[in-house]
Amino acid sequence: MKQHIDGTAPMAGLFTLPLRWVIGWTYFSAFWRRLVLENKLIPDEPGYIGEKFNHFLPNALGIKPVIEYLVSNPEALQVSMVVFTVVEAVVGLCIMLGLFTRLMAVGVFFLAMGIMLGSGWLGTTCLDEWQIGVLGVAGGFVLFLTGSGTYSLDRYFMQKQRRFTTTRWFAFLGSGTLPVKNITPKVLAMSLLIFGLTLFTNQYFHGGVFGTLHNKSVRPRVDISNIRYDGSRLSFQVFRVEGADVYGSFLIGIQVLDEKGKVVRSLGQKELASFSNDKIKNHYVAKINPGPYSLIVPLGAKADISIDLEDLVPKENYSLKLVDISGIEWTAKIK
Asked: Which of 140, 182, 203, 206 is packed most tightly, with the most Cβ within 10 A?
């Protein structure tokens, strides 16, 4: 019986060869894109990966406090982005080479889990990030079960009868027969757990199991809070929580409305395009800044904004309105 199991182990690893190569390249290519083809690890440079990470924040599941801490502390964020990129490079390369396959498969599992929990809600058309996440979790588990077979360094070292390949720890971290007794119910339990996680996150992020489908990446949404005034200046907090991560919200109007909805103070498109940065206090690495034609609000950006009231004194039931270039409007009461 043992010979039969030992004989099937390298075959299982062989059958997952395309999965190993594709998953490996998926993670290694992240390093390749960010550091070799173009350096995206430099803060304040266009395409900085830390800003992309900031986009995950508004609707992340379970790990939002970690993301918020990092995007609020740029130095810690940069270190974590470098470490994360190096880990993806090592995991991806080793998976493709079939070196310590099971250990790297655990890395794939947790990297994919992080992607799913952080950005599973993003994706304008095909639930992109969620699909990458859940398939990575399942693929990582499969590669842990099979290890690598032919066309892998694990198998090469085993055939050369290197001493470390005969140890029990190598069976858990490399390839070969997985030394787990009564493995069938354990695989079933883990598979059910992964499938349950798939259904739960699909429902949580997108309503994809029952009820009404929703996609938070389609339309921009800006939350307004902490509205206050000191007699000559009105300040408020803006936080963009929905919309496409590759496309900003473009504010072309900030208006103060009276109790009848009449505009009593207004900043238009030209004024917002030249809006002073001194009146914007950004909280995260994704920053709200004036652009050529509007005030640009990236996904995940949060800032305190202040405007001069001039001679206006807000009264009860006055409200604040923000106008996006798409025609979408967001309103909040001035209390």
From this structure: 140
- Which is nearest to 202 in space by CA: 193, 192, 213, 217? 213
139-157 mean pLDDT: 95
Which sign, positive or negative, has the C-alpha torsion 46, 52, 57, 58?
positive
Closest C-alpha among 162, 35, 16 to residue 95:
16
Q: Count the residues in the chain.
A: 335
Closest CA to 187 of 234, 156, 141, 249: 141
From the list 313, 309, 311, 315, the residue with the least C-alpha distance to 259 is: 315
Under DSSP, is residue 200 helix (H, G, I), strand (E, B) or coil?
Answer: helix
Q: Is the pTM for the entire model greater than 0.85? A: yes
Listed in sequence order, the residues at least 6 apart from 221 whose beta carbon sits closer than 8 Å to its beta carbon are: 240, 241, 242, 243, 330
Mean pLDDT value across residues 216-240: 92
- Which domains are seen in the chain, by residue range? 2-206 (no CATH), 221-333 (2.60.40)
Q: Give the rounded percent of residues in the chain with a pLDDT score beyond 90.
A: 82
Which residues is 323 bridged to in the sheet? 253, 329
Task: Label residue 55 exposed, middle or buried (CB < 10 Å: 0-12, 13-18, 19+).
Answer: buried
What's the CA angle centered on 183, arms 201 and 95, to 5 degrees? 65
Is 146:16 a contact under the CB 8 Å cutoff?
yes
Residue with token string 């000559």: 232
What's the mean pLDDT in 17-26? Answer: 96
CB half-sphere exposure, 201, CA atoms < 13 A = 29
Per-residue CA distances from 299 to 42, 53, 284, 323 (Å): 19, 10, 11, 16
- Check whether 8 has a pLDDT greater than 90: no
Cα–Cα distance between 80 and 63 in angstroms, integer? 14
| Mean pLDDT calculated for residue range 268-281 | 95
